[in-house]
Specification:
The complex is a heterotrimer of chains A (250), B (350) and C (361). Chain A is an alpha/beta fold and 250 residues long. Helices cover 32% and strands 30% of the residues of chain A. The longest helix of chain A is centred in the C-terminal third of the chain and has 16 residues. With 361 residues, chain C is mainly alpha-helical. Classes of the chains: A alpha/beta (250), B mainly alpha (350), C mainly alpha (361). The complex binds adenosine-5'-diphosphate and magnesium ion (MG).
């Protein structure tokens, strides 16, 4: 089918509650899919299954057309499936390069035998990737705590891209940002798309989704209720699907 | 959420009670003279000071804080009350009045360390661990300066009479006396029942428990420990509340020091030094969480009894008491592990 | 984002004189106290006194290093003070036993050290597993191992210092690097010059106690570990955000266990140092509160109990500040009781500074 990532018939239960019920979907390279639904619809649970936080009770995951086993976040990262969580998961007491390289630090030999962190290299690489993504961060040596929400978001995105993300999942990327920063994130997503990365974006901001998504998948009470092509639909239709005023299947 | 059945639930909820029972049975069979009325009374008498400190600690821990200063506030209070009693006595006051004034003035002074703790924690946002450690140092230093490093002695003997009196004195065949040991019965077998200080302590604890469980103040204390932001948004004056909590903690510790002074007829700067951590341990064994929001006074008292039965039981068995620490360490870890494995069982609202 | 205001907001604050001062206030405060005590303290400003302050601070420095690592991860280790005592009595009693069984002195000492350190590591391992695997709060877990350490060490020594050890421990522990005899110009390393008779010992100038070397090596090593290695970087990361560290693929469980093992290793080492310096196996007394003073020193050095920050050298400054204070007040004729008050006040100053200027460190 040419999907980078595809899930088939995923079901995830929490005790008696069916959080995700028999959902199938796929994302192509260079495509952005918006995942929409009311609170509790099962969006976060679905992406947590993909990123290895939860294990599905039924269904399978295909990555590059091959069935894969994702048992932990590490498995997902190793394949190139990166997730940017709403809380970003940055160590706020460390600076930008330290966060981009967190857990995968570059070492060098000092005095010929001492293995030490290669701060210079990590800094150089970090500024390269930020430049590539057209992101401006005044001083890389600032701790994350001193950065704005948008800058933090940018650091999180840069980290995924630097580590060769083939597939990116973003949970509410614009939720906590000011208007200017939201715009910047949207343009970053479009840039990533042009690099051939498959992306799932969860958002409550209808406006954002219409700007970036090629397709939309709408969930309600754990089920996928619709799959729409962005240019063939409009906000009214999407909203009524989300709240369940009518059921349209494509 | 589904609840695991029968046995594990029972263990999860009642292990502390169960443990205390096991201790009692164990020492009753093995301890020299443990299973006698006197044996039990000694344990209770010994528990009074720790019970008050642990009560103090419970209030603080329920808010999610910790008070490392209680042990030394207790020592401070014992020193101050002893010195004051001596002072008033030497001014020619009647012993009753000397002791009464000493107690009242000490209670007033005892609010001070708590107030400083509270202001540091609530106003200046100093972590409770550090604020109360700093205040601990300051009160300890002050008590040492007051006593010049030795014990405060020469307290009027009335203190002894009060501190070591029993509620009821029974002389078989001759009658019953309250509070004072019958002079007439000297030489005869007097059965002493219920140390007065135990009665006082139980009353104070009952009031504390009422405060925490039944009043709005208590509700707010749990609310702050559960989620301070939510408490703030619900309109609770969290800052003032926290200051009051630390003052209250200091007050209970001060009471504990005063009782120590009455029981031991002296004051010592380090009277409570070994209780500082014991009080935290008792609260944790009682099922409270250091993250706040959970814990009750009666459960804490259960923890206190577990510790003092252990200590006294070992002592009466002739075992070196420092083995107590190994046991305490293990019980503590055990308590927290149970807490981890059966959280919903212990933290169920009762 | 290209917005100027935004860029300004993210801009690195210039290292103003003020921020340098505030960031290193404990160091300047240390210098200030040294200056003041030099005027007020009898014999305070003397080579011997300075050397002895640092020499006697060795164990406290090791404990503070231990707490620095733990505190950076957002934990706390209450056991270190009593692990120090456990290590001292465990190794001393082993030495005593083996030496009495006609082992050679060096062999008994070596085995003794190994036993002491092993006992310490066991405490850290237990605490670390509780904390990392079972999510027991560090305060409680280390309080538990502290209880066990107290009990076991009192059990070993029965509440009395352990003597009758192989000879020569204090000779090593209190040795100086350089001995100079100014009158004759004779000098030598590690032992008094052969040409100097016993009755001339008083005239010798001793420079650099052997403990300086130990302190220097360990501060350097631990500084390097924290600053330049992956281990150090992950220590900060875990303290900054456990979540971020887990998702970045750091094996946080193993790391935390290692941290607590490292902490008790340093505490155990401190016990051995104490054994060599005093010549007896001393248990830790209750009032000592070694762990609390170590924590205080680390906080004075600018670390936060919330985790994520702390510096080895700053912690060392914190220790020296407390030790200089103790020594200087004493030599100035102030009653020793005031020390507790002084420590409390400085601690409050430290934390309030941290609260007022959270971004300095
Ligand atoms: N760890 C969990 N345990 C139990 N129930 C959960 C858990 N995570 C999510 N749920 C439930 O699953 C449903 C879907 O949640 P979620 O995927 O977070 O929805 P969304 O992200 O669309 O708002 C909700 O009813 C939620 O309460
Ligand atoms: Mg969600």
């Amino acid at each position: 089918m040419g999907y980078v990532l595809e899930v088939r018939n995923i079901t995830k239960r929490f005790g008696g509650l069916v959080a995700v019920n028999d959902v199938s979907m796929g994302v192509q390279a260079g495509e952005v899919v918006g995942l929409l639904g009311d609170n509790g619809a099962g969006k976060s649970t679905l992406i947590k299954v993909i990123s290895g936080v939860y294990k599905a009770d039924a269904g399978k995951i295909l990555f590059m057309d091959k069935e894969v086993q994702i048992d932990s976040p590490m498995d997902a990262l190793a394949m190139g499936i990166e997730t940017i969580y709403q809380d970003l998961a940055l160590a706020e007491n460390l600076n930008t390069p330290a966060n981009i390289f967190l857990g995968r630090e570059k070492m060098k030999k000092a005095l010929g035998f001492l293995n030490v962190l290669d701060h210079a290299y990590m800094q150089k690489e970090s500024s390269k990737i930020l430049e590539k993504l057209d992101i401006l961060i005044p001083s890389l040596r600032n701790r994350i705590r001193a950065l704005s929400g948008g800058q933090r978001q940018a650091v999180a995105i840069s980290r995924s891209i630097y580590w060769d993300a083939k597939f990116l999942i973003m949970d509410e990327p614009t939720a906590a940002l000011g208007v200017a920063e939201q715009k910047k994130v949207i343009s970053t997503i479009n840039l990533l798309k042009s690099h051939g990365i498959g992306i799932i974006v969860i958002s409550h901001q209808m406006h954002d989704i219409f700007q970036v998504a090629d397709r939309m998948i709408i969930m309600r009470r754990g089920e996928k209720v619709a799959e729409l092509v962005t240019k063939n639909t409009n906000a009214d239709e999407v909203v009524s699907l989300i709240v369940g005023a009518e059921t349209v299947t494509k | 959420m589904a609840r695991a059945g029968g046995f594990t639930t029972l263990i999860g909820q009642r292990w502390a009670m169960l443990f205390l029972l096991i201790e009692l049975v164990f020492f009753s069979f093995l301890g020299g003279g443990f299973f006698t009325m006197n044996g039990f009374q000694i344990v209770l008498f010994y528990s009074t000071t720790l019970a008050l400190l642990a009560t103090a600690e419970t209030f603080v821990i329920v808010t999610g804080g910790i008070d490392l200063s209680v042990g030394f506030v207790m020592g401070f209070a014992s020193v101050v009350s002893a010195k004051l009693a001596v002072r008033f006595d030497s001014l020619g006051l009647a012993p009753e009045l000397s002791i009464l004034f000493a107690v009242l003035v000490t209670l007033a002074i005892g609010l001070l360390p708590g107030f400083v703790n509270g202001v540091l924690v609530a106003r200046l946002k100093v972590p409770p661990f550090l604020a109360t450690f700093a205040v601990q140092g300051i009160t300890y230093g002050t008590s040492l300066i007051i006593t010049q490093g030795s014990a405060a002695i020469n307290v009027p003997n009335l203190a002894n009479v009060i501190g070591n009196s029993y509620f009821i004195h029974l002389v078989p065949g001759r009658g019953i006396w309250f509070f004072t040991r019958p002079e007439a019965a000297r030489g005869a077998d007097v059965i002493d029942i219920i140390p007065t200080m135990v009665v006082v302590t139980v009353l104070v604890i009952a009031v504390a428990s009422f405060l925490l469980k039944r009043t709005r103040f208590g509700r707010h204390t749990y609310a702050i420990g559960g989620n301070i932001d939510a408490a703030l948004r619900a309109g609770i004056n969290t800052r003032r509340h926290l200051v009051v909590i630390y003052v209250l903690s200091s007050l209970f510790a001060t009471l504990s020091g005063i009782i120590y002074m009455l029981e031991y007829v002296s004051g010592k700067a380090d009277a409570g030094s070994s209780f500082m951590l014991d009080s935290v341990v008792a609260v944790v064994i009682g099922g409270a969480s250091l993250f706040g929001g959970v814990g009750t006074i009666w459960r804490t008292i259960l923890g206190v009894l577990i510790l003092s039965v252990l200590e006294m039981g070992l002592k009466m068995m002739g075992v070196q008491t420092f083995d107590k620490y190994i046991a305490v360490g293990i019980i503590l870890i055990f308590a927290v592990l149970i807490d981890q494995f059966f959280p919903e069982m212990i933290h169920k609202e009762d | 984002m290209g917005d100027k205001a935004l860029a300004m907001k993210g801009g690195r604050e210039k290292a103003s004189v003020f921020s340098v001062l505030a960031r290193n206030w404990s160091f300047f405060f240390l210098v200030l106290t040294v200056v003041i005590f030099s005027f007020t303290g009898k014999n305070f400003f003397a080579l011997n006194n300075f050397q002895s302050i640092i020499h006697l601070a060795t164990t406290a420095l090791l404990l503070a290093c231990a707490e620095t690592f733990v505190i950076i991860t957002g934990g706390v280790d209450l056991s270190v003070g009593f692990v120090l005592g456990l290590s001292a009595v465990a190794s001393a009693s082993t030495m005593q036993l083996l030496y009495a069984a006609h082992w050679s002195a060096p062999a008994s000492v070596l085995v003794g050290i190994v036993v002491g350190i092993a006992a310490s590591l066991a405490c850290g391992l237990v605490a670390g597993v509780m904390i990392a695997r079972f999510k027991v709060p560090p305060f409680i877990a280390t309080l538990g191992t502290m209880g066990i350490a107290i009990g076991v060490s009192y059990h070993i020594c029965g509440g009395f210092p352990i003597g009758y050890l192989p000879p020569g421990l204090t000779d090593i522990g209190n040795m100086y690097v350089l001995y100079v005899h100014p009158a004759s110009g004779a000098w030598s390393f590690f032992a008094r010059p052969a040409s100097i008779a016993a009755n001339q010992i008083k005239e010798l100038v001793r420079i650099a106690p052997i403990s300086f070397i130990l302190i220097f090596v360990f501060l350097l090593l631990l500084w390097h570990l924290l600053k330049n290695t992956r281990f150090g970087q992950h220590t900060y990361a875990i303290g900054g955000s456990m979540d971020a560290s887990v998702r970045a693929g750091i094996n946080t469980r193993r790391h935390l266990i290692l941290i607590y093992v490292l902490s008790t290793f340093l505490a155990g080492l401190a016990g051995i140092v104490d054994l060599f310096q005093s010549g007896t196996g001393n248990f830790t007394t209750f009032g000592a509160q070694l762990e609390l003073f170590a924590i205080a020193a680390v906080i004075i050095g600018g670390a936060s109990l919330m985790g994520g920050k702390g510096r080895i050298l700053a912690s060392a400054v914190g220790v020296l500040l407390l030790k200089v204070l103790e020594n200087g007040l004493n030599l100035s004729g102030v009653q020793p009781f005031y020390r507790y008050i002084a420590v409390g006040l400085i601690l409050i100053v430290a934390v309030v500074i941290d609260q007022l200027f959270p971004d300095l460190f």
